[in-house]
Amino acid sequence: MKKLFDNHGREVNYLRLAVTDRCNLRCYYCMPERGIDYVPRQELMSYEEMLRIVSLLAGMGIRKLRITGGEPFVRRDMMDFFHAASSIGALKQIHLTTNGTVVAPLIPELKKLGISSVNLSLDTLDPQRFFEMTRRNEFHAVMQTFEQLLYHGIPTKINAVVIHGKNDADLQPLAMLTKDHPVGVRFIEEMPFNGAGANHAELWWNHHRILEELQRLFPALKKIPDPPFSTSSNYQIPGHRGTVGIIAAYSRTFCGTCNRLRLTPQGMLKTCLYDNGIFNIKDLVRAGASDEQLEHAFLDALGHRAKNGFEAEQNRFGLPVSESMSTIGG
Ligand code: SAM
Ligand code: SF4
After folding, report:
1. Tally of structural domains, the chain
2. Is residue 4 part of a domain?
3. Percentage of the chain modeled with pLDDT above 90
4. pLDDT confidence of 322, banded at 50, 70, 90?
5. Residue 251 and residue 206: Cα distance in Å, rounded?
6. What is the best residue among 97, 120, 157 to mutate for testing ligand 1's pocket, by most ligand atoms within 8 Å of CB?
7. 29: domain CATH number?
8. Atom of ligand 2 nearest to the CA of 30
9. Ligand number nearest to the C-alpha of 191
10. Which terminal CB of the chain, N or C, has fewer other CB atoms within 10 Å?
């Protein structure tokens, strides 16, 4: 089978699979309060369809799978899917991105399955601000998941979207989590994927401002080397066990080394977070496509891949970025 390379010579070995667009939170920066129009159930990829596609892509060089959503664990029998995906031999790593509201009791089983890491979304350590940002009262459930992840020694990153006027005061306490815990706390620039369109004319908390603020709070903050393909620029506060990262998701400083593909819950392939979807793989599967035909479709899509997120956004022909991140997976 041919390996996945794009027209810019970048090898693609990482798949982000959004297994559902449903979610039990209503994060201010991701969805409107009333929620979004969910994809009809029959339009979602079935577990069988997802497993076929993941196996095929693993044969083409995908080594790392991230399961995301929506909230992955609001989809029924999610654990069965994890078990099945874990048995795809060519996949070397399976990661999870979760809001942590319902997954705490499943952490021991995920550990047994050998999950590589978990990204836990947590924008604030203040229960009232948590409610204001997510419109749900689930702070304590998320903290329980955090404790379980630490207890079971699962490599954990905290994802915090930084929003002016909402969680500015949380940079310090979140960064302080790295003092006693071996976690990576990553501060993310807000993107316009909120189901409605841009929240701001200008992004206040861009990566420069986040860094300046962290340097003000922690004058000894040190730059540390970034792992290959890292989307975060990484730092450490001397003496702390964990690390602090900044993800310039809106400024898009990391596109040059992009090694990832995305599949939405309805099977749309995205070769860039900012593109409008290249083709629907589920439709091909349901039309009876052979493995060779699916393989060809992936290679063809990568042969026309945008160089970076700005080019991908331009190629949307005026369609603004406004879909909810819960339909993309982050
Ligand atoms: N529901 C899970 C969660 O929240 O972790 C997984 C899906 S969520 C869409 C994946 C990531 O996207 C989360 O870390 C979330 O903070 C981030 N995200 C959502 N909307 C965003 C936005 N408008 N800008 C930046 N990051 C966003
Ligand atoms: Fe749900 Fe995650 Fe979006 Fe929050 S960021 S509404 S938890 S999908």
Report:
1. 1
2. no
3. 92
4. confident
5. 7
6. 97
7. 3.20.20.70
8. 3
9. 1
10. N
Q: Which atom of ligand 1 is nearest to the CA of 326?
A: 9
| CA 28 / ligand 2 centre spacing (Å) | 9
- Range(s) of the domain holding residue 297: 14-328
- pLDDT higher than 90, residue 200: no
7, part of any domain = no
Find all residues with CB under 8 Å of 99, minimum gap 6, and list them.
23, 24, 25, 27, 71, 120, 121, 134, 138, 142
Q: How many CB atoms lie within 10 A of CB 9?
A: 6
DSSP state of 205: S
Residue 218, classed as helix, strand or coil, is coil
> CA quadruple 188, 192, 196, 201: dihedral positive or negative?
positive
Protein residues whose CB sits closer than 6 Å to any atom of ligand 2: 23, 25-27, 30-31, 69-71, 99, 121, 325-326
pLDDT band at 109 (very low <50, low <70, confident <90, very high): very high
| Residue 9 included in any domain | no
Nearest CA, atom 17, ligand 1: 330
CB atoms within 10 A of CB 295: 18
Q: Is the pTM here over 0.70, yes or no?
A: yes
